[in-house]
Task: inverse folding
């Protein structure tokens, strides 16, 4: 045990003290926050006031086009031919022509511009015209504007879990987001840190350093020390990333809010909602009025069993990492260089990739047969079970999955140790699957 602790300490300190570790730990959150801050700053700072002229021969759209922070509409009474001749001198950005028979021929609307207009402006103008034509046709059919407004309802349901403890509010949106994030983190960590174990073993074997180490430490102790040491490095980096990201995001939000003029705050909010994780909110044009799902998720987090999710995440992170990193370590011990690892990587990486693919279907049906079996099998359970846990999993399924995962990584560690003890001192020989099978049963 003492030798394993020494190897763990060495592996942990060597990696944590590397400049690359420190740079990536700090650079990761900085790049994430800088990306969002830059998008918001550029989107707000690059907005110029555009003028749009409107020639409305139907006289149905007077004052229907509303001015915004970036758009200003002006109505012309002159004919369209005269407006087109004066367009270049007016300095306007666009000229909208609405013919008198627009209700019968809604596709006859034209937008003139010196250059192409943006899709946002084009769709916004079309939305205003479509809405007004719909209201006119409804009015002709005897449906008033008040009746139309009263008929528009926003249905919002509340999900409630029924159990022996009674009724408890739940949130499928929060469960989906948190389950997906946890599964993705485990998926990435298994690849990143499992590969680090394999490359570290291959490097020591190539440099013949392992011949010196193995004289003082048993092969099994060396392998376990490496696996656990790299796992602790991964946990350390995750904790620092979460802490730094939250801190930098709060700081960036405060700085941007203080320096932005008040009339641009709504634009900042709109940009944030259009970015990944956001949604189209109210804008100057129709089509908004959609609640931001991020706010809904944050408000529903309290309905989830956060201690259980965190505890299970830690267990499945370590369990999945131990299971796969042992196999990665066995591959590293069996080959002489990184190029030779490719033939053995496919059987190891396929279950991880399949797990992430299956997770997309499990999110749709977290209680289905596919979800059950893939959350029980040790090679897929670390990712799939973390997708299911926020939705609620029966205790017996969770216990069964954990027990099988423990047995699974114990089996893979035993298997990897049998290969590791022979392969770590094997040089200059191309290894096949048949050869690996022989190493397992060597005494």
Result:
């Amino acid at each position: 045990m003492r030798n394993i602790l020494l190897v763990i300490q060495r592996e942990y300190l060597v990696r944590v003290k590397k400049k690359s570790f420190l740079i990536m730990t700090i650079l990761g959150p900085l790049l994430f926050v800088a990306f969002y801050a830059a998008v918001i700053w550029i989107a707000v700072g690059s907005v110029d006031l555009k003028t749009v002229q409107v020639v409305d021969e139907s006289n149905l759209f007077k004052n229907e086009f509303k001015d915004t922070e970036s758009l200003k509409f002006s109505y012309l009474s002159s004919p369209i031919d005269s407006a087109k001749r004066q367009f270049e001198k007016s300095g306007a950005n666009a000229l909208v022509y609405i013919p008198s028979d627009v209700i019968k021929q809604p596709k006859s609307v034209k937008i003139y511009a010196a250059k192409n207009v943006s899709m946002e402006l084009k769709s916004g103008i079309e939305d205003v015209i479509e809405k007004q034509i719909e209201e006119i046709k409804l009015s002709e059919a005897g449906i008033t504007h008040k009746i139309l407004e009263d008929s528009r309802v926003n249905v919002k349901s509340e999900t409630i879990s029924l159990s022996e403890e009674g009724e408890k509010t739940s949130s499928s949106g929060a469960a989906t987001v948190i389950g997906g994030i946890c599964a993705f983190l485990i998926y990435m960590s298994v690849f990143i840190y499992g590969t680090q174990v394999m490359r570290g073993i291959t490097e020591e074997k190539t440099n013949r350093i392992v011949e010196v180490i193995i004289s003082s430490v048993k092969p099994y102790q060396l392998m376990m020390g490496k696996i656990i040491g790299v796992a602790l490095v991964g946990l350390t980096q995750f904790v620092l990333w979460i802490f730094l990201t939250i801190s930098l995001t709060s700081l960036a939000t405060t700085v941007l809010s203080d320096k932005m003029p008040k009339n641009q705050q709504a634009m900042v909010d709109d940009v944030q909602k259009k970015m990944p994780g956001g949604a189209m909110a109210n804008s100057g044009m129709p089509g908004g009025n959609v609640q931001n799902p991020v706010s809904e998720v944050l408000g529903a987090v309290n309905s989830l069993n956060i201690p259980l999710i965190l505890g299970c995440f830690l267990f499945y992170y370590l369990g999945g990492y131990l299971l796969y990193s042992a196999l990665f370590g066995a591959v590293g011990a069996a080959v002489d260089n990184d190029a030779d690892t490719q033939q053995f990587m496919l059987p190891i990486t396929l279950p991880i990739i399949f797990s992430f693919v299956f997770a997309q279907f499990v999110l749709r049906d977290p209680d289905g047969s596919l979800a059950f079996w893939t959350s029980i099998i040790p090679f897929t359970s670390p990712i799939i079970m973390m997708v299911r846990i926020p939705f609620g999993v029966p205790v017996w399924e969770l216990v069964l999955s954990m027990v099988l995962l423990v047995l699974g990584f114990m089996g893979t560690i035993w298997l990897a140790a049998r290969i590791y003890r022979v392969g770590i001192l094997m040089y200059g020989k191309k290894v096949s699957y048949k050869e690996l099978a022989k190493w397992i049963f060597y005494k």
